Each structure stands twice: as C-alpha cells, then as structure tokens.
C-alpha cells in the first residue's frame, strides 16, 4: 500500500498547474487532490507525522506561499508546483464519553488574501452549514431565548437597538453549543440571523442539533490577515490566577498560545480571518458581533480591514486580555476608539475569577447618535 508521502509526491509530480481567481485574476484549471490523513487517538490527542518534514501543517504541507504570492501578484510567470490539497484529519477524543470528528485542512488557502474569490467560494460551498429550516422547532435545553436570561444580550437590546431593528444580522465567534448565546434572544425574539463560529468539533455538533436559524461554521477566527494553521487546546486556553480563591483557574478551551504550557489534547486547526467569514456571508451590515475566544480577541481585531466592513456593535470578552498573548484590555479599548467606537459597560457582568467585568460593549459613534445610546445602570 502506498504511503501518504508517495501518494502526494505522485500527484505533485504529475500535476503542476495552479488556478483560482486570485489577486491578479489569473484563471487556470484547478486540480482537486484529496489526501486522507487519519489520526487515531486513544485518550489523548496524538499528532501523527508524514514521512517528510515538509509534509505537515508546520510547513504548510510543502506549499510555499511566497511562490504563490509572487505568481498571483504578477511578479513571477512561473506557476508554483502545487494544487488544492484537501487534507482530512480524523480525530477521536476520549473525553466525556468520547467523540469523533473530521477536521479539514486546506494548505493552499493559507496563501490567499482574506477576500480571495476562490477562498470565499470554497468557504460557502465546503464549510458553511446553512440555517435550520424555519419550520423546525428550536432544540434548547434549557432555553435561553429571553433577553432577561442573558445579561450581554439584554444590554445590547436595552442600550442600543430595543425594537428598532428586526431581521438584523449577527456574528458570534466562540458560540460553544449555541444555546447560552448572546445572539439567541435576537434571533428568537426579533428574527435576526447570522453566523455562529465554533472551533471545537464537540460543541459544533451540539450547535447543529439546536436548529438555530443562522449559518454555522466549524473553524476558528484567525489571528492573522490570511488563513493559517494554529494549535487549539481542547481542554483550556490556559490558567489564570483566580481573584476568588487565590488558586489557579483553567479557562475555556481555545488557542494554545506560547505564554503557557498546554495539554496533550491539543489539535491543529485552520483558522480563517474574520473578513473571510464576512465575505463568505456576503459582507452584510453586521448589527452585532460577539467576540469571545479566551484572550485572543485583540489579535483578531487587529486583522479587521475597518474601511471594508460595516459592523455596528461589538461585545468583546476583555478580562482575559494579556493573559495568553501580549496586549491588554486598554489596548483593545484604544484600538476600538481609533476604529470609531465608543465603549460602554456591561451590567451584571462581574467575573469573580478575574476580579473585573468579563466583557465590554463598543458601539460605533454614528450608531450611538442614531439610537441615542447612553450608559444604563
């Protein structure tokens, strides 16, 4: 039986043409090569390796993005010897009864700008799960669909939109199981829809069972302005010094940064820039964007091309800023102010573990004026 290396090398030697709608709009025949990378895991996640060092996420499976960039920008007429490799990573995690899932890794996408036509179309066709049919009842246990059940949602509703925006649009990054969700009351009560982003396959499978009337995607929001591979610790993004009891407190699962040690249950995922996800949804006006990714919010915000997007309100987890990557809550506040947003406090939002409010709300200044937004006590 041929090894994965032999299969890939055979395809790469035979097919050398690359094609997609890129920055320079060059159009070629796109070759679809499917390779299956199976990772069997018993108890802990173990990353298997290809036989060649270049054949893995650490080296983008041998695809040189510098060569691709030069070709797409017109600096080189030599087509790189690569194709749209489609790596399927099967994982089994023995956790809470165990779960199995398949992770997609597409190394060629890491060479593409966030709104590359081919990338956007592939996100639409291969990644996005469409909203559940309107006729299907919600499957929440327990239901959190009233504004007074979710302090974040209640603040955005009472301080900003009230009943002024029906059929609005949201994005929630870090949606978990899509049940205790700041966007759920807007969806159920006001007919909003949007995009729910969840990186953990276990939670994503639960999301699909809720019958949310919003699109779903199993990925992470990127910390770079192009797609990229990154390690996700499925147990915890790290530990913090608890202000409540003085001990160490593990936070939710998330990006495995280099400021802390991480568990063996760490998997490599491909993240997409927020602007890529927005583009795949048609780059609509986003009435509300919820960003809750365990300490890496600042990195995501830095990737946003502010002049190309229309985002009215953010609610951002800020109490973990600086814990797992360089930066601070003040850096987030400064960045948002420079982007044209005014900060408001969330009420009933104190986190005893961090000793501060968990989230901050940012409202674009024209929206503050439009809806006469004021701080409520």
Task: Please give a handful of descriptors for the protein shown.
single chain; 377 residues; alpha/beta; Rossmann fold; 2 domains; four-stranded mixed sheet; 10 helices; 23% helix
What does this entry look like structurally?
With about 375 residues, the protein is of the alpha/beta class. The chain folds into 2 domains: about 5-110, no CATH class; about 145-225 and about 275-370, Vaccinia Virus protein VP39 (Rossmann fold). The protein is built from 10 helices and 18 strands. The strands form 5 sheets. The chain has a 7-stranded mixed sheet with strand order 6-5-4-13-14-18-15, with helices on both faces. A 4-stranded mixed sheet has the order 7-12-8-11. Strands 1-2-3 form a 3-stranded mixed sheet. Helix 3 (about 115-125) packs across helix 7. The termini are far apart.
Sum this structure up briefly.
The protein is of the alpha/beta class and 377 residues long. It has 10 helices and 18 strands. The chain is globular and about 60 Å long.
Which helices and strands occur, and which strands form pairs?
Layout: H1 4-14, E1 32-38, H2 65-73, E2 84-93, E3 99-105, H3 117-127, H4 151-161, E4 169-173, H5 184-190, E5 193-197, H6 201-208, E6 215-217, E7 220-221, E8 228-233, E9 239-241, E10 248-250, E11 254-255, E12 266-272, H7 274-280, E13 288-291, H8 297-301, E14 313-317, H9 329-338, E15 341-345, E16 350-351, E17 356-357, E18 359-364, H10 365-370
* Quantity of strands, as a count: 18
| Tally of individual domains | 2
Structural class: alpha/beta
Distance between the termini: 68 Å
Strand order of the largest sheet: 6-5-4-13-14-18-15
**Number of discrete helical segments:** 10
Mean pLDDT across the residues is 83
